[in-house]
């Protein structure tokens, strides 16, 4: 019985790896081109599934994009030409790792800048609070007496 459980666990772990959605009819005969196609498709976003590469997605659009990548590679395009073609066709959103140029530089710099502004504001606030005198001197005599009674209990 233990051997069965061990075998079931091993099978489960073996099959739990990332499932690639590339269909057998999409695979190129040339292993070098196929490897380039796989490398490219892992960096391209499925526009249906959002945060899944076209290599992992089962969506029809992802399949069309995988076929398009392979067609462009067979036609002799370089990797950058294939990516440029897909960006021109679908927009820069198709890249899983967007560029850091142009308007995207603002997006890449916004998070650290906002963090620094927030951190600076917190430091300023905490230092100004530390400089303030305690407000206990503003209590009347009856309030001080009442406070002392409460602290005794």
Automatic annotation (TrEMBL):
Residue ranges occupied by any CcmH/CycL/Ccl2/NrfF N-terminal domain in the UniProt entry: 10-151
MF terms in GO: metal ion binding
A UniProt-annotated Pfam family: CcmH
Biological-process GO terms, alphabetical: cytochrome complex assembly
Signal found in the keyword field: yes
Keywords on record: Cytochrome c-type biogenesis, Heme, Iron, Membrane, Metal-binding, Signal, Transmembrane, Transmembrane helix
Signal peptide: 1-21
Family, per entry: Belongs to the CcmH/CycL/Ccl2/NrfF family.
Regions that span the bilayer: 105-126
Function according to Swiss-Prot or TrEMBL: Possible subunit of a heme lyase.
Domain of life of the source: Bacteria
Any Gene Ontology CC annotation: plasma membrane
Protein name: Cytochrome c-type biogenesis protein
């Amino acid at each position: 019985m233990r051997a069965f459980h061990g075998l079931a666990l091993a099978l489960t772990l073996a099959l739990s790896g990332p499932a690639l959605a590339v269909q057998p009819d999409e695979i190129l005969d040339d292993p070098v081109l196929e490897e380039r196609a796989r490398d490219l498709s892992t960096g391209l976003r499925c526009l249906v599934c959002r945060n899944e590469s076209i290599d992992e997605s089962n969506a029809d659009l992802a399949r069309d994009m995988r076929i398009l990548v392979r067609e462009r590679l067979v036609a002799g395009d370089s990797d950058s030409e294939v990516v440029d073609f897909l960006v021109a066709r679908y927009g820069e959103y198709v890249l899983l790792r967007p560029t850091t140029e142009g308007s995207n530089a603002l997006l890449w710099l916004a998070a650290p800048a906002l963090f620094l502004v927030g951190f600076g504001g917190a430091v300023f606030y905490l230092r100004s609070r530390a400089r303030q005198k305690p407000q206990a001197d503003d209590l009347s005599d009856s309030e001080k007496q009442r406070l002392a009674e409460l602290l005794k209990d």
